[in-house]
Amino acid sequence: MQVLAEFLGFTSLASSLWNTISYLAFIAIITGVFWERCRNWLITMGAIVLAIYAAIFLQNTLLTTLQIVIAISGILQLCRVSRSSAMLTMIGCTIVAYLFLIFENAIVDDWSFVGSFGLLGIALGLTILPKRDGFLVMAAGGLLLIGYSFVIGAWVFFFLNIFFFIANLYTWHAS
């Protein structure tokens, strides 16, 4: 049991607190995929929490930046911004995010590039929702993040994206 706890990141009081909060955000996001009425709220709040977790605890610029892009996408949905305005905003945010990531040397290898496209897929999928294709785009983003998270050992993001991938495929198929 101790080996599993350590593997999941529960190695100290601080890591246990941060990981508990991030796993709760993970549960909120997965719940949001299935619960249409609260989908945007749960996914957006989960993304904000995971952005804070990635920034402060993981200190991972790529995950932080792109979780912020996902949160912005969710906020646009919550504010019921028109699809065309949301897409233009997301294109602008994406350009700024990639310029920032390049300037900060956060995209340093093939896996970080793959990870960046994974989070981008999720952000764009949120913008496409409630259309059925949004779930497929988010599933593809989750699949890319499984590989990136595994390589960097970000287990919260690894497990989140396994479940996120499955949940989005299921919701896409069921809709």
Topology:
Blueprint: H1 2-7, H2 13-34, H3 39-58, H4 61-78, H5 83-103, H6 110-128, H7 133-152, H8 155-174
The rough form would be described as: globular
Number of separate strands: 0
Q: Percent of residues in beta strands? A: under 5%
Query: How many helical stretches?
Result: 8
Mean pLDDT level: 90
Instruction: List unreliable stretches of 5+ residues.
Output: none
- The sequence of SSEs as H and E is HHHHHHHH
Largest sheet: none
Structural class assignment = mainly alpha
Distance between the termini: 39 Å
Helix content: over 70%
Explain this structure.
The chain has 175 residues and is mainly α. 83% of the residues lie in helices and 0% in strands. The chain contains eight helices and no strands. The mean pLDDT is 90.
Q: How is this structure best summarized?
A:
The protein is mainly α. It contains 8 helices and no strands. The longest helix is centred in the N-terminal third of the chain and has 22 residues.
Record keyword descriptors for this entry:
0% strand; mainly alpha; 175 residues
